[in-house]
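FORM 12-B: Structure-to-Sequence Request
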């Protein structure tokens, strides 16, 4: 593993062609925005590039991302974007985990699995960093690239509400708007639009809410039965994890989503008093201090017991 800087990252990309870009499983706006923006920039340079993800891209993103025409080709160079650990690649982890040439990320918990790794842990989103990468490639960002990057920047900062937001985050956002990003449309799609299946599963998810550790831990459980009852899918539930942190007195919010095989994914949200990445790392995951994720190879109930026990340790 080799840690590299922004210039070296751009140089590595310029030396390559036929570039496959990996977004993490259960994709969010940041991994998609960063991946699609990089792909669009590489295509502008005349390179072959495309984005792949182990999971379905949520419908709400397609108004922004569907227009990018990506060619088919045999990949010769593999880049991961916003992927702190190969566990987050889902089923692609086994296929590509030991073959990733370059990782572009902003997670301090990045495990250094790629041959070369560019991490800017001061950035609130990988899209904050990706504008610099694209500029270093010698590509002038157009309106589509600006839309991709603004989507990631807005979603990973909770519409600029999180403590991870810095002066530079606002500067990058302003530059993206100057480049033509449709910030009004993007924020409406990301934060003010709910599908009927999502509204139905949100109601059931809130009914499942449980409290532990003297009400300092809130857990929401989303089961396969809930998906069946509402017609919602896992990709519809991206907006649910932040709800756990909105309850007064809660310091750790946890969302457990049951997978079809009975295992589950865990999304963790915290405030400054608890480092979410430490909690996630205890179970092989990673992420940010206030937003992280991990997976459990056991039932929801089993995962709940394990994570509550760890929460008790952290809250002592």
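FORM 12-B RESPONSE
SEQUENCE OUT:
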């Amino acid at each position: 593993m080799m840690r590299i800087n922004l210039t070296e990252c751009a140089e590595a990309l310029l030396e390559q062609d036929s570039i496959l870009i990996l977004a993490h499983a259960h994709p969010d706006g940041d991994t998609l925005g960063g991946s699609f923006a990089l792909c669009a920039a590489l295509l502008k340079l005349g390179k072959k590039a495309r984005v792949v993800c182990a999971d379905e891209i949520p419908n709400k993103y397609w108004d922004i991302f569907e227009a990018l025409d990506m060619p088919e080709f045999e990949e010769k160079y593999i880049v991961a974007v916003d992927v702190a650990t190969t566990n987050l690649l889902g089923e692609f982890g086994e296929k590509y985990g030991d073959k990733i040439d370059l990782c572009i990320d902003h997670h301090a918990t990045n495990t250094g699995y790629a041959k070369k790794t560019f991490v800017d842990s001061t950035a609130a989103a990988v899209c904050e960093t990706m504008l610099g990468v694209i500029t270093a490639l010698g590509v002038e960002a157009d309106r589509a690239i600006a839309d991709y990057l603004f989507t990631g920047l807005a979603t990973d900062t909770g519409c600029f509400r999180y403590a991870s937001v810095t002066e530079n985050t606002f500067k990058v956002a302003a530059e993206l708007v100057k480049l033509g990003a449709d910030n009004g449309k993007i924020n409406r799609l990301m934060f003010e639009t709910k599908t009927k299946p999502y509204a139905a599963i949100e109601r059931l998810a809130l009914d499942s809410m449980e409290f532990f550790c003297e009400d300092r831990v809130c857990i929401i459980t989303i089961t396969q039965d809930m998906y069946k009852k509402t017609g919602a899918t896992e990709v519809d539930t991206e907006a649910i994890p932040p709800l756990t942190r909105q309850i007064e007195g809660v310091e750790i919010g946890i969302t457990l989503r049951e997978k079809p095989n009975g295992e589950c994914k865990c999304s963790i949200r915290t405030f400054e008093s608890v480092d979410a990445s430490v909690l996630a790392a205890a179970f092989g995951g990673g992420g940010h201090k206030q937003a992280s994720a991990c997976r459990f190879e056991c039932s929801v109930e089993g995962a709940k017991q394990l994570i509550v026990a760890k929460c008790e340790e952290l809250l002592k």
